[in-house]
Amino acid sequence: RDRRTERLPPAVVEHGTEGWNYQIDYEPTDRRQLVALDLPTAAPEGSRLDAALSLSSDRSLSALSRWRLQSAPPQRFDATLSSYQRRAALQLPEGFNPRTATLARQWRQEAGSDDAAVVRRALAWITADFSYTLATPAAGRDPVDAFLFDYKAGYCQHFSSAFVVLMRNAGIPARVVTGFAGGTRNRIGDYWVLRRMDAHAWAEVWLPQRGWVRIDPTAAVAPERILDTLDDRLQAGADTGLQQRWQQLGQVRDWMRRGWNELVLSFDARRQQQLLQPFGLDDLQPGQLLAGFVMAVSLALAWMAWLLARGERERDPLLRAWHRLGLRYARLGLGREPHEPALHWARRVNGQRPDPALITLSQRFADARYAGTCTELAPLLRDLRRHRPTSGASP
Length: 395
What we know:
Strand order of the largest sheet: 3-5-4
Helix content: 40-55%
Number of helices: 13
Oligomer: single chain
CATH class of the largest domain: Alpha Beta
CATH architecture of the largest domain: Roll
């Protein structure tokens, strides 16, 4: 993307009558570039369109996010090209790929002013002589010459870049476009998943009275010349039945993850207000909502931690019997303090309400719980459960 065009106004587009309203959920990424169906009619809030109608977010996409978009196919796309845009779309490094430059000048001379004829000739050449493969040699000093005249095989980046260089040498404004093609349909949730493996590169050429026109030179490769694809490599040596079952399981996992994303992304301020309406708190400001949400989460976590700790304690029948004994004294205002050892508490209670049996029980409990000297718990448990505070009045 040419950053010099980012501050220019978006291109003028005449859209067709057909259009699409849709949403895209983005997993966290290290980029700000957004993708959309051709062509976005407007930039959603929090994003912007540059002069080439590339869509980018104002903020980092480092967190899960959702975008609602509108797009429509173009009838005319930038039908008037400024002198600056024309120069940028014809720019080439000097002294590179001489064979490509010679061929392009020859085609231009033979086609005259018919730019579309040059485009058709290039696509026909690709269909007749070129193959698609991921196994390509390393690029040399003149990579386009090597691709077009020597090995004549490559993948989308080779085809799109070589096509653009050929068109520019013929005096036709052209540019490489990157995005996604294909994707995987999740049949369970009826949505499409795009991954980086679905990335694709194609081209656009500028033609008089039409503006920018999409051309995919990779798609011009004859089907019988498609030798090696990413899908072929992924499926090589794999058991077909096992692979199909694994793909089905993957679709289930992705559908469940999307359900969680839906819950997180849709819990916006409007839903928070609706949730609080029964409590008469539907007029809170966003900052108050956030503070209340944080407090509610903190209280919930603290309650869960207390329940877990209590559950761990209550698994021990000795502790359970001891705590219930303590509750009987707590009702009389003689509850044990959290920092107070069992025997110290019993002596304090005995000083206010004489109860020698409590001291004995506390000693037996401490010996069993901490000293490990009690060999029979059944009698101690029975006595703890039966013990009741004495009837004496506390001061």
